[in-house]
Design brief:
152 residues; Nucleotidyltransferase, domain 5; six-stranded mixed β-sheet; 36% helix; RNaseH-like_sf; RNase_H-like_dom_plant; RNaseH_domain; nucleic acid binding; RNA-DNA hybrid ribonuclease activity
Amino acid sequence: MMRWFPPDDGWWKLNCNGTPKGNPGLSGAGSVIRNNKRDMIFAFYEFLQDQTNTFAKLYAIFRGLELSLHAGGRCIRLELDATAVLNILHKDNRQWRLQLLTCLWLLRRQMNVVFLHIYREGNKPTWQTLRVLWELLKLSETKSAFGGSYSS
């Protein structure tokens, strides 16, 4: 049985997900970040209009890192269940060059980030949290939602 494991002391864990309804299709992206005590620091979900699943997952990563930085995170263990997206981050890919440069800019701002693959089953707590945010956003008709101690 796969499960979520907390990060080491002094680290935060950022679990990301992005899903379209169709590929491309109406998309959303979200991330959940927790500390080593399993406390949620924040969670977010944003609607992205018509996008591919690759774009949605990359957006979840970039936005999650940006929000982590603003919330005080410096050591981030980023987990994602999409090996294709992790491969994009580890290779020079012209299609995603601007997004990769943005990510590198964030990383250079005093962040230590480790990118890791996680099986879908281990990412289940993230799905559950993002599903709740999705439902809240549908009810409120806003574009993003935040939880935990971070506010925009």
